[in-house]
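Example record used in the benchmark description.
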Amino acid sequence: MENNLNIIEYAFDKPETRAKKRIGPHPENIINFIFGILLGDSHAERRLYRSKNGDINGSTRITLQQEDSNIEYLMKCWKILSKRGYCSKKKPILRTKIVKKGKIRRIIRINTWSFTSFNYIHELFYIDGVKRVPKNIEEYLTPEVLAHWIMCDGSKVSSGIKLCTNSFIYEDLELLCRVLEKKYKLDSSIQKT
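Model output (structure tokens):
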């Protein structure tokens, strides 16, 4: 029986596996991880392809990118995903990128494989191509999701923890504040930086 479980768990572990065959099921800790990093800087990319009969289908992959200052967390993320067959087993490479005003940034990026069963996550987080906080985020904001969000996009400040939420509109931030208060009794405020 255990061998069958391993086959199911790693059935989509090969890069050449077509996305339409990568359908899960996904363990709760993987879904929690994805929701947590999507509340941070990560993004879900919808990839479309045309089937043999002409239908347009799609799949979604999750991309996590961090600077080298957060390399320890990122490598832990890669181990979580690669061990369970969600991304390449090839260790991510630290790359140098020149950004505005010639500043050099060192980054690492991890892409999951594309899964048709991640499409619902893309639909929750994206409206007309713009990343938003899902209206039903309360259902998904578990302690594990909150922990990944903090590790991915949080920093300690004298008054507690600051979560960078620059990619969301004000209405989404108000929703997050209400949910954090309701579910966890966390006092939060929106501050422009």
